[in-house]
Write a structure and sequence with these properties.
The protein is of the alpha+beta class. The chain has 2 domains: 106 residues, no CATH class; 109 residues, no CATH class. The chain is 28% helix and 27% strand. It starts with a helix and ends with a strand. About 2% of the residues have low confidence.
Length: 255
């Protein structure tokens, strides 16, 4: 089931605004990194990456900015659990006290927080907790606008990856830009309920691309989410995101 779903152009998002995290299906680590090309150092809480640096104070491995590309190119979905938190520099790790290290270990192991995981010493923007990356991701965002950046970038990447090919089999020039965060604001309440964005059911015409959106509910089990999604095709839309090819701009329509 997981391999089948992984091939679908579907994004599920359920937002917990109070605790600053979003549960998602369909957004992968490489897409996340594409949205934040300035991402610096990652403290690896759960992983199977074999080329990390070792921090003697936390007894954890980390990846620095120069090595992130190698991590992106690795098959992180095959790790099982893949969890990390970003930080400014190694000296920041060396300033963590025992309680903070314990909280980070708990975060990576349980995939839940003892306290919301933003640390002044680390100056982190994210805590990224995934199981079979792209299948079930729980990501904490210090600023929720960063989630809208992630979502808008991921939708654009998926659309462009599915783009038409030329006669010689090469993909046409990418023409669909990232979705601005303000276009996604109208869907905040829908995301709090649990929302699915179906790129695979997008309607492509010469003048536009229309991506359907449904409110689907609160799911932690993504197989159950998919079963619900299979039954949704006859339901009226709860909204849509439209790219106007002529104006080269995005528009949002909410029911």
């Amino acid at each position: 089931m997981k391999n089948h779903i992984a091939n679908l152009g579907v994004i599920y998002a359920h937002m917990n605004h109070v605790d600053h995290y979003v549960l998602t299906y369909g957004i992968e680590f490489h897409e996340f990194c594409q949205a934040f090309p300035d991402l610096s150092n990652l403290l690896l809480l759960r992983h199977r990456y074999e080329d990390g640096n070792f921090n003697l104070h936390t007894l954890l491995e980390y990846v620095d900015a120069d090595s992130i590309k190698r991590l992106i190119e690795d098959n992180v979905a095959a790790y099982g659990d893949f969890c990390w938190i970003d930080f400014d520099d190694e000296e920041a790790l060396n300033r963590l006290d025992g309680q903070e290290i314990a909280e980070l270990l708990y975060l990576g192991h349980i995939k839940n927080h003892l306290r919301i995981p933003f640390y002044r010493k680390l100056n982190n923007r994210f805590a990224y907790l995934s199981h079979e990356d792209g299948w079930l991701n729980k990501t904490y965002y210090r600023t929720m606008d960063d989630f809208y950046i992630t979502l808008g970038s991921s939708i654009s990447m998926k659309l462009n990856d599915k783009g038409e090919k030329t006669f010689f089999g090469r993909r046409k020039r990418k023409e669909i830009p990232e979705i601005p965060v303000e276009i996604l604001y109208p869907f905040i309440e829908e995301m709090k309920e649990g929302m699915i964005i179906s790129i695979e059911k997008a309607v492509h015409t010469r003048t536009s691309v229309e991506i359907p959106i449904w409110v689907i509910g609160d799911f932690y089990d993504m197989e159950e989410m998919y079963e619900e999604y299979k039954e949704i095709h006859d339901r009226p839309l709860d909204g849509k995101i439209v790219f106007d090819r002529k104006e080269k701009e995005w528009k949002a329509y909410v029911k």
